[in-house]
Amino acid sequence: MQHMENFRFDGEQAEVIQAIKFDVVKHEDVISAKTLYLKVNDNVHIRYIVRHLNGDVETTNDFFIGEVSRLDEENNIIVTNFRARHDNYVSSFESQLTEEAIALGVEAERKAKEEFPFDESYVPGMLLNQEVGAEAWYQGCLPGGYVWCGDDCGGSAACWSSTPGVNGLDNCCKTHDCCYSRLGVSYPNCYCDQKLCDCSQAAPFAWNKAIVQSAMCFVC
């Protein structure tokens, strides 16, 4: 990864865009996660995720995901996406945002925030209680009108369905569902899951990114 010129990080000036904690079902597992999404400046955003599995705090791990944006000579938005886990794993890649993708992202963002099931009584691991889990949205499509993202949402139909996702992130989940079906593999599959992690990073402004990335990034 290259050093960014003139980059300065001032923790006191960083703006908190999103700070949530939640449980999410991934097949037979329950992931309890906390995420903090920071706007460092107009061009730099960083998400910190810490999580543990099935109520066992001994499984706790954490990582960073971020974006650095810039305009190219033709005024296209170029984003350097990066993720890091401790000091032994850092990766980055570039993507380009279109005006259409940005517009879809903004609308889906608004709807997802409105439908996000905030619960003041939430405690980590509450989905391990079967009565709660049976009624939880986490086992269906994600809030905001998503049709492919979420446990028991989408499926093998992704390979032939003409139904698009509501935004870039939802389309990433559609590709992920098709990946499992096309390869004929069972959960977990590192190739398909890592592809979804990469794709979610390049999708713009999605409120539900934290949920998808908590379940799919650094799982292998």
Automatic annotation (TrEMBL):
One of its GO terms (biological process) is phospholipid metabolic process. One of its GO terms (cellular component) is extracellular region. Keywords: Secreted. It comes from Melghiribacillus thermohalophilus. InterPro entries: PLA2_histidine, PLipase_A2_dom_sf. Its main location: secreted. The keyword Secreted applies. PROSITE patterns: PA2_HIS. It comes from the Bacteria. This is Uncharacterized protein. Signal peptide: none annotated. It is found in: Secreted. One of its GO terms (molecular function) is phospholipase A2 activity.
